[in-house]
Amino acid sequence: MARVKGGVLAQKRRKNVLARAKGYRGVRSKKERYAHEALLHAGKYAFAHRRDKKTDFRQLWIVRLNAAVRENGHPSYSVFIGTLKKHGILLDRKVLATFATEHPEIFTRIAKQAV
Questions:
Q1: What is the pLDDT of residues 42-69, one digit of tens each?
Q2: How many Cα atoms within 13 Å fall on the side-chain side of residue 41?
């Protein structure tokens, strides 16, 4: 078999790695080995933080709901959610938090139904 040299493809691969690491600080954007390692870590963090983002938003909605719930006379967020479920009001936390911040009159009506 004939010998195959990989110079062109290797150069293309290196160029691609450095292009994806553009904007990284120091050696991580200049040297191929460090850039490749930085890209591997970046991929791991991106994967993990896509999941963390869902938790962060849920916590934000709960904080907003708790403040709005206490303004409307309920003792706490957990009691409010419990009474919503008991009365068969099936709105998720995202929708309730949106109502609480952007449409307080609608949220007040929902809170009165859950008494």
A1: 999 999 999 999 999 999 999 999 999 9
A2: 9
Q: Which of 76, 53, 64 is nearest to 104 (CA)?
A: 64
The token pair at 84 is: 């919503």
Question: Where does the pLDDT of residue 114 fall: very low under 50, low under 70, confident under 90, or very high at 90 and above?
Answer: confident
- Domains in the chain, start-ordered, CATH in brackets? 7-113 (1.10.1900.20)
pTM for the full model?
0.74
Cα dist from 68 to 23, 80, 109, whole Å: 42, 11, 12
The number of beta carbons lying within 10 Å of the beta carbon of residue 20 is: 15
**Residue 68, number of CB atoms within 10 A of its CB:** 22
